[in-house]
Design goal:
- The structure is a single chain.
- By secondary structure, the chain is an alpha/beta fold.
- The protein has 10 helices and 11 strands.
- The strands form 2 sheets. The protein has a 7-stranded parallel sheet with strand order 7-6-5-10-8-11-9, sandwiched between helices. The protein has a 4-stranded mixed sheet with strand order 1-4-2-3.
- Helix 5 runs parallel beside helix 10.
- It is elongated and about 60 Å long.
- It starts with 31 loop residues before the first strand and ends with a helix.
Length: 285
């Protein structure tokens, strides 16, 4: 559908080369650690210029990864297992960590204006916004699903949200190294910017949620099934997912053009945010 066309029944409101790194321990500014063979491989394919050096557990052998690193000029240094655990957390490295420069922190304005970025299988532009997701594993899993389904990027707040830790990077299976990521100071303002740029804001809620949780009238007062909106979605969409326990905050909900729910058949009332993101992205994309 065109950007100006509304889904049936909708209502629109106003709307350089590798540099050497230091030892694994200690906090250093501008450092991004990527643990795990799969995530490191994605980084070396997507942005080898960001990799300062590759740390491989002493006594372990990763021939394909080592060959790839050598082909792009990345230095490999042996490390003890406890050094890797100290750097990224116990059990995350699985024998390999890339010491890299952080991925680009996109501005929300650039993501909204970008026409040549990723698109879904049906050709839509779709941004994923996370409202207070706290678990870095959930953050990484959502980023992985967003990249898989062709989202244009993932946006979340700098405060009271999970940071982009090594755990999040590993959970993303390397998607953090490929997908545009954006952290904003004010999530409500970012959603208003999206609306002004003629993107449609879609909030996900549980089926039996009480609309009265919003103290002010929402532009999207009725909750409709995700599958219904997925039949004829807007061309430019912002999919908003709430926190693990509280869902969407009031200020976030008030800025939604649509509220959708994922219909189930079992006894559980809702899905984990990472699972919900995959279902919603598949249904809208």
């Amino acid at each position: 559908m065109s950007r100006s066309r509304r889904p049936e029944g909708s209502r629109r409101g106003p709307g350089s080369g590798p540099a050497r790194g230091g030892p694994p321990g200690g906090d250093r500014p501008n450092r991004h650690l990527v643990p795990g063979e799969r995530a490191v491989t994605e980084l070396l394919h997507a942005a080898p210029e960001r990799v300062r050096e590759l740390w491989i557990e002493r006594g372990r052998d990763f021939p394909e990864l080592s060959e790839l690193a050598a082909s792009v000029g990345v230095v490999i240094r042996p490390r003890e297992r406890d050094e890797l655990d100290e750097a990224v957390g116990p059990g995350l490295a699985r024998g390999v960590v890339a010491h890299a420069r952080p991925p680009k922190d996109w501005a929300i304005e650039d993501l909204l204006a970008r026409e040549d970025g990723p698109r879904t299988r049906r050709g839509f532009r779709l941004l994923v916004v996370l409202d207070g997701v706290q678990d870095p594993h959930n953050l990484g899993a959502v980023i992985r699903s967003a990249e898989f389904f062709g989202a244009a990027g993932v946006v979340w707040a700098r405060d009271r949200s999970a940071p982009l830790t090594p755990a999040a990077v590993r959970s993303s299976a390397g998607a953090t190294e490929r997908l545009p990521l954006c952290q904003v100071t004010n999530l409500a303002r970012a959603l208003e910017q999206a609306k002004q740029a003629e993107w449609w804001v879609i909030g996900t809620v549980v089926e039996d949620e009480d609309p009265s949780v919003s103290e002010a009238p929402s532009r999207a007062s009725a909750i409709r099934p995700l599958r219904e909106l997925g039949e004829d979605p807007p061309t430019n969409m912002v999919l908003v997912l709430g926190s693990e326990e509280k869902g969407l905050r009031r200020l976030t909900r008030e800025r939604c053009d649509f509220l959708v729910t994922i219909e189930g058949a079992g006894e559980l009332g809702s899905l984990n945010v990472s699972a919900a993101s995959a279902v919603a992205l598949a249904g809208l994309g």
